[in-house]
Amino acid sequence: MQYRQLGSTELSVSEVSFGTWAIGGSWGKVDDKESLRALERAMEAGVNFFDTADVYGNGHSEELLAKATKGKEDSIHIATKFCRAGDIHDPALYTEESVRAYCEQSLKRLQRERIDLYQIHCPPIEILRDGSVFSVLDKLREEGKIRHYGVSVETVEEGLVCLESPNVKALQVIYNIFRQKPQEELFPKAEEKGVGILVRLPLASGLLTGKFKEDAVFEEGDHRNYNQNGDSFNVGETFAGLPFKKGVALSRELSWIAEGKGNMTRAALRWILDNPNITCVIPGFKNVAQVEDNLGVLDAASFSSTEHEKLRAFYEQEVHAHIRGAY
């Protein structure tokens, strides 16, 4: 396992870390015992950073992380998020009273005295422009409730607004072979400001594993079923904003990336980690096998400059026009 500094913070995190949306809910059925075994396997491999949120299974993923990391609070870092449990457009949700309540609830579920990275969970851009919430987070940081704070964003514009706030230490973004826009302007500016980059949905909700066929059917409780067209939240959170059948067709055209890298999953993660602006990727998982598969990227060779140019051209010519929603 290799480790990378989280921006200008003192935290050094595993370049392959994990997100816990899938084990909390919204990705179909889960087995808590298997989830805990998977978390343990990740930590055995050197993973020291996990991302979660208060709305993942209504706090369930936070509770699972508490069990998995008990006694390891100093060595295993946790990032969690807040605001999606309420009306994200209501300014009252971002007041000190509200944010403090969210923070205390997460601390209780995590069974920790401090959150390593506390993130605003995809708020509207007007909240970010107002900036009052950052003052609230500054206060929680001064009190020792949180170590650092950041923002999970949907668009490049939102990320650029966040970079204007001096104590934002991390941005969580959607970035993958199908979603390359952030690397153009956002990543260099984040590097300049000493802000770390966490990459969520690195596999485009599974499209970049190459395992789906156009007739795939997802469980009713899986967001890949009910949010394919952005009916419940930002369409970019599901299949990177691509219509599912188009995404499957495009992934088939990318089958060549697996050559010499084990499979498409490992290749897709390797492509992200080849970018020096990235702090870590945080793929999801539901079992030990998926953790093992994601960890396989550690043995995958980097892409050549020619291959990177080919994948950039593929995005610009074949993918970009089909992505829906602002990003």
TrEMBL record:
Gene3D superfamilies: NADP-dependent oxidoreductase domain (3.20.20.100). It comes from the Bacteria. InterPro entries: AKR, AKR2_Oxidoreductase, NAD(P)_OxRdtase_dom_sf, NADP_OxRdtase_dom. Pfam families: Aldo_ket_red (PF00248). One of its GO terms (molecular function) is oxidoreductase activity. Residues 16-315 form the NADP-dependent oxidoreductase domain. This is Aldo/keto reductase. The lineage of its organism: Bacteria, Bacillati, Bacillota, Bacilli, Bacillales.
